[in-house]
UniProtKB/TrEMBL annotation:
Protein's recorded name: Major facilitator superfamily (MFS) profile domain-containing protein
Gene3D superfamilies: MFS general substrate transporter like domains
Top-level taxon: Eukaryota
Residue intervals passing through the bilayer: 59-78, 90-112
Pfam family name, one: Sugar_tr
Subcellular location: Membrane
Topology class, membrane: Multi-pass membrane protein
Length: 124
């Protein structure tokens, strides 16, 4: 799921260059602002994507839905031709479970996006 930019604030009162209502977070130094919530609340704050392009921010959601599309075509074909519905359902659940478990260990947005693709593939 695409995470919106989390809210942030200026910890130093009276700092005129830092105003969360009008300042661009990308134009400020890293120590002049901080997130309102813990860093792990959003993938944007966790991996420092606040100044990344919208393509990179939306990549995990795009990957998931592209995986759903690919999985729908491939798993439906397998269910009707060779594996059967019961075995395809088992394979789908296995793919989703393993990719969900491995998502925990993602170290960057690229690995996370690949695992979201695999999860979407299994969801189809």
């Amino acid at each position: 799921m695409l995470s919106p930019l989390p809210t942030w604030h200026c910890p130093q009162l009276g700092d005129e260059s830092c105003n969360s209502a009008s300042s661009d977070i990308c134009q400020l130094s890293n120590n002049s602002w901080s997130w309102d919530f813990p860093v792990h609340t959003s993938i944007i704050s966790e991996w420092g994507l606040e100044c990344a392009s919208s393509l990179v921010k939306g990549l995990p959601a795009l990957s998931f839905f592209m995986g759903c599309l690919a999985g729908g075509f491939i798993l439906a074909t397998l269910a009707d031709s060779s594996l059967g519905r019961k075995n395809t359902l088992f394979l789908s659940c296995l793919i989703m479970s393993l990719s969900s478990l491995l998502t925990i260990f993602s170290t960057n947005v690229w690995i996370y996006s690949v695992l979201r693709f695999v999860n979407g593939f299994g969801r189809a």
